[in-house]
Amino acid sequence: MARQVVAFVNPAFVSPFLRGTSSLSAAGSFIVSRHIYDGTTPSSAARRCVHMSTTQAPQKKANQGRSKKSRGGSGKREKKSSTSPGLLRALQTYEPIIGMEMHVQLATKTKAYCNCSTKPVRTPNTNICPVCMGHPGALPVVNSKVVELAAKAGMALGCTIAQYSRFDRKNYYYVDTPKNYQITQDMNPIAQKGSLQLASSGKKVGITRLHMEEDSAKMQHEGAGAAGRLTDSTHSLVDFNRSGIPLIEIVSEPDISNGSEAAEYGQELQRILRYVGTSDCNMQDGSLRCDVNISIRPRGTTNFGTKVELKNLNSFASVQKSIDFEIERQANILDDGDAVQMETRTWDEKANETKTMRVKEGASDYRYFPEPDIPPLQIARETLEKWRKDMPELPSQKRERYQAEFSLSSYDAFLLSDDVTTAQYFEDSIEAGADPKQAANWIMGDITKVLKNEKIGLRLCKLTPKNLANMISLIDNGIISGKIAKDLIQELVLKGGVPSEIVDERDLKLISDPEVIREIVAKVIEENPKELSAYKDGKSRLFGFFVGKSLAASGGKGDPVTTNNVLKELLDD
Amino acid sequence: MSMPITCFVTSTNSISRFLSRPSLISRQKLRCCRSLRTTPRSSASRPINEIVQSIRSRETSASRLLDGALSRIEEIDPHVNAYLSVDVEDAQSQARRIDEQIARGKDPGPLAGIPISIKDNISTKGQPTTAASRILDGFTPAYNATAVQRLIDSGAVILGKTNLDEFGMGGSTEYSAFTETRNPWDLSRVPGGSSGGSAAAVATGMCMAALGTDTGGSIRQPASFCGITGFKPSYGRISRHGLLAYASSLDTIGPLCRSAEDAALLMQVMAGADGMDSTASKSPVPTFSAYLEGDLSGLRFGVVEESLASEVDTEVSNAVQNATDVLKSLGADVQTVSLPFLSHVTAAYYVIAYSEASANLARYDGVRYGTRAVDAQNSSDMYAQSRAAGFGGEVKRRLMAGTYALSSGYYDAYYLKAQRVRAALTNDIKKAFAAGFDALITPVAATPAFKLGEKLHDPVLMMLGDTFTIPANLSGLPAVSLPCGKTESNLPIGFQVIGEYMKDEVVLKIGHAYQQATLYHEMVPRAVEASVALSV
What we know:
The structure holds 2 protein chains of 2 kinds.
Chain A: E1 6-8, E2 31-34, H1 44-48, H2 57-70, H3 85-93, E3 94-105, H4 144-156, E4 160-161, E5 164-165, E6 168-171, E7 181-184, E8 191-197, E9 204-214, E10 218-222, E11 235-239, E12 246-252, H5 259-275, E13 288-298, E14 308-313, H6 316-335, E15 343-348, E16 353-359, E17 369-370, E18 377-378, H7 381-390, H8 395-406, H9 410-416, H10 420-431, H11 436-454, H12 465-476, H13 482-495, H14 499-505, H15 514-527, H16 529-536, H17 542-553, H18 560-571
Parallel strand pairs in A: 14-15
Antiparallel strand pairs in A: 1-2, 2-11, 3-12, 3-13, 4-8, 5-18, 6-7, 6-17, 8-9, 9-12, 10-11, 13-14, 15-16
Helix pairs in contact in A: 3-6, 5-6, 8-9, 10-11, 10-12, 11-13, 15-17, 15-18, 17-18
Chain B: H1 12-20, H2 27-36, H3 48-56, H4 62-80, E1 83-86, H5 88-103, E2 115-119, H6 146-153, E3 157-162, H7 196-203, E4 209-214, H8 220-226, E5 229-232, E6 252-257, H9 260-270, H10 288-292, E7 300-304, H11 314-329, E8 333-337, H12 342-360, H13 379-390, H14 393-406, H15 412-434, E9 439-443, H16 459-464, H17 470-474, E10 479-486, E11 492-499, H18 504-517, H19 526-535
Helix pairs in contact in B: 4-5, 4-19, 7-8, 9-18, 12-14, 12-15
């Protein structure tokens, strides 16, 4: 059936941000671009599914599994463990050239060029105004927070921040682009020439540039058999809530050599941007999006091969798998003497392969030119200095410091600095006097275990860093045993409380008075005459039995050393 | 209904005396002109300021003033076609509100009750805004342009929307998709453009002032063709928020009025920074009226040599010569100055304007508002068909040329080179100002109003008419078009004063001084009066 696009537009549109009390008649409904016009308005079902469903859960698990593996810490990372023989063969013959383009939604309250909220809302076309709808006469005004976050992200990636930068128009017609041009930066991006170091190998991946731009609207392709895809759809719905949300695009040099390096690059970038507060960088929500450019060439040659673009990669696991798949696929094509086609491919999670999305017919001409509605951007030196001062310690710096200052292993340092919350918690407990190594063990061990079981994050942990330090000092000073602490940890994490007070209240202190212990031990010996005579007959292994019984009889509070000494004394009497 | 805005001056004799003697004007004659100013005038030739006073003092009312303008529209507009839409009820309720405020002792502001029309490429909330294009037929904006809102906040009554060349692209108002506006001085001629509707409406008293937009001369040229005062402010002096962009780096909103004094009053209200437009200047707004008074002694003007070259109509160059003589007599030092880059400005202007337009007009795609083709098979057909049906020929020509100029491989040769010419011209002009000139003088256009259809099929000829007005746009300078004479065939002639960037008040001061000494700005288009009489 021929597809048809027919008008369905609510022409009277009024912005909520404007003067007066006009109603926003487009609000709450999609702007519909109908392929087959049936005269109806968008169904309520359509309204409900503003945010297209994403099946992230399994990918996320795969992702986590992968990240653990690649965090092998000791430097001995099993990169090639999952490498198929086919990929190995391909890598022997060919050299992959891989570059990444990441789009990151900035964590601002309002959109890039207007005052609309960026808060996710379920109802389509509610966070909209004449500017982000491309209404006649509306002009963009740059949100200064966008510039700040972009510049800080650039600083965190070691880029040179341009004191003079400029916005440009990128012209192309698409229904999700209300002005039919995107306001982006072409010639003078805000940041250039940075790098990111991969922790596993120490390899530096160059950052070519970082620039500011705006997000497009969300399209939803509808109709029988469409299943959310354009192909076979009868009409499309457009939700402009996302239109104009600020993005930064970060383009890497083609320095990446394989799938796992790409995934590691992505994860480290995500970590850094979360650290500096650029974005929450959630791939599931689309606040971090990854595109990959990949070509291969015979090893030892210098001409670049034909580039394939990989899109719609929803997790770092997909990034890794799709790249490794693509290396093998392209190698097979070249092995057969054929040519790789210039195209955009997407990762099919179920089929575990990349599939053609669209074939590029020549290069598109975006007819970039300087955005005349926005004066060139000049950032005062003092402002840049202030932003630089605001820079937090970055993950790599923390990793190094934790190893040097606290003698932690690279693995522990990596885990503790993985996210800001954990790192802060760790540092706060040291600040409160905790021994770094013990604090690290508690955080990565029992505390994490309890939180995981309850499926909550460290933010909701009721055991404050100060109380963790308090608990560790109780153990260090021999006031409680490690066992008591382990028994208490679940309660402390979930309900809170000051460990020293709980120990006092519940009388959990270690008993180290030999006289008290002697009483307990004597009673245990008395109650076990059989074992006593067996021991006396030479079954010395039963000493352990008496230790265990005695400690149990003390309710775990008996000091093990004293108990040992007293037992020896009484048994060998 | 009685017409408060009846005709204007009785001084046509003195004006024709000027014309018959295109030489120096004696002090004596100037005094004679000034003395004419003391004769009582009708409301149309009275400064807006005075009319506002009489509304405030309840000598007259906003509603009465509006009724006058409305009945004038009823009589005259069928002959002139200046308006695309007039919302009578809405205007009446605005006027009533002003009168009520005054009755309650509240001051509605410095434009209390003044009926003002708005060029139809400026956004008016709840009033159709079409840019004279089919692609926006029936479109009603959700918001007021900042300039319009500031007029309303100052007590103005928004009367209606005036005709223009589609999206401001043209110099005759013939490229309107809806109607052909006629020059009230000679109904067989164009009113100029693209703000032709606004100019004709002001010239005929169908409103007391109007907003126009000026990208390459679109306020000044129709003002000169219709014998009124048209002011193009410095780029950024008035917010563009709500101006349906043609060429963003050149577009300005400005007033078309009877006099420089009126223009100053409107500027006072509209100028200034705006959070909705980051190209709007944040520099403080001067008190324009404070600059109006005083003579021109100590000021130095440069008549642009190249603008009085042979291709300029003799009647026009004579009138401009006379105007400079008046300025001299007012104490100014007038010399000639050369702008070598003038011959290149038209080409540069069109490359820049068309390129920007090709992106600015991309949003008219039929997806979110406006006309959409109904039987397209896919989205690219939908765009093509909607735009093919929605845009007129001239707009399409300009969009295609602009798209071409920005294409990969041509950008450097066209757009970038045009920007270099722009920079060189700006440098030329800067040098002139740095050499001590306070303003530059040129004709507004090389000819008076031409015949309808005369240049319609020769777009290049139409473009060349903009040579003298374009420099102010390319360099962002304030410039005023002032009536300075009539041709033997009774068509108005205007001359242009271009000032230094952000010295809008100086330009208006010069205009006011000139108009204090002359009466050309009080000339009346008799032709339309005659045809009204005929049709009655």
